[in-house]
Design a protein that fits this description.
- The protein is of the alpha/beta class.
- It has a domain at about 25-255: Aspartate Aminotransferase, domain 2 (3-Layer(aba) Sandwich), CATH 3.40.640.10.
- The chain has helices at about 25-40, 50-60, 70-80, 100-105, 150-160, 215-225, 245-280, 315-325, 340-345, 365-370, 385-404; strands at about 65-70, 90-95, 110-115, 135-140, 165-170, 175-180, 180, 190-195, 205-210, 285, 295, 300-305, 330, 375-380.
- Strands 1-9-8-5-4-2-3 form a seven-stranded mixed sheet, sandwiched between helices.
- A hairpin with a 2-residue loop joins strand 6 (about 175-180) and strand 7.
- Helix 1 (about 25-40) runs antiparallel to helix 7 (about 245-280), helix 3 (about 70-80) crosses helix 4 and helix 7 (about 245-280) crosses helix 11 (about 385-404).
- The chain is globular and about 75 Å long.
Length: about 400
Amino acid sequence: MSKELLALNGGSKSINKNFDWPIFDENEINAVEEVLRSGNWGSPNCQDKVAAFERAYAEFCGTKYAVSCVNGSVSLRIALIASGIQPGDEVIVPPYTFIATASTVIECNAVPVFVDISLDTFNMDPDKIEAAITPRTKAIVPVHFGGLACDMDRILSIAEKHGLTVIEDAAHAHGAAYKGKMLGSLGKAGSFSFQSSKNMTSGEGGVVVTNDEKMYKMMSSLRNVGREEHGQWYDHFNAGCNYRITQMQAVLLSEQLKRLESQTQKRHNNGNYLAGLLENIEGITPLKRNIGETINSYHLFIFRYDPAGFGGLSRDEFVAHLNAEGVPCIKGYPYPLYKQPLFQEKRFMCYAIPAEVDYTNVSCPVAEQVCNESVWILQNALLGEKEDMDAFAEAILKIQNAYR
């Protein structure tokens, strides 16, 4: 193969296409306009559009209940509180995830305990969970990272054995499934985010799904300033806050939900096809597939990059080249959560974390390794066509050929 001039060096781009996000049409515009003209934007006593979305999302997930709120961090926080997490309890979390997975535990005056991830999936490694369990452990928060399902059979089995609650962090996993069951519906609760980059979005927003009526009622109360259904407007029974979404967000989400199944299937098909193309390229290792996931939502298409397959080209340089060729991608997290100043300097501002808790000596070798190797292709690119996936693979080969 002759060497082509790379786009970053003045050559032609491999992909001349914009992968727009969010995707919307007149349906979203008309739905928002209807709410706008009604004047019923967000009163706590007029939440019919919000309630309609919650019913639809619960039905989509195969759960009895859904509680919407302002973002995916709050949805995880109210799920933890409603599950019974008490000050000083320990909650097992992975170190390769967004900060909210762990910081919400701290907001509950509880202690995050980091368990390393699997190199094949970037999800929490079930083989390492039991060693982290102590008498103070009360919950496990598995993150379906990038939209790939965790090994939920193993995690749920461990949780049952030790009497622990499982709360799924499904912020990346809208529409994804494990052995035929929707992610978020397998644990006691499942938390989703509708932040602007997510596979389903209203700019900001979150939701928790559950089959537990008691938990549902508590989360509903926490989301609505501690009110309960039987009380008056000035009766506050729990230490909640105003975490309600607006009617405009609700109708946006209702319209976005109508697109979710077909979009998720397209990401799943394109992601699996792209993985099949890339796994034969030296220096590129996509995440493992066919490990129980029925549908992978591919919020991120993730692969590990080895400079040795590209003539020593650094990951920074590779990502710069790949973006220049027209493939939307980033490097991912630069270090695991426990390396954040929040944990290294114990900036907790809460009273119940024991003084002996020390994150300066925490080590999760796999998480640290993948922080130096990972490349993420963004979810909107997976809504392209099959020929776009071919072009992504060709762009990587073009870069490889230029440096070998």
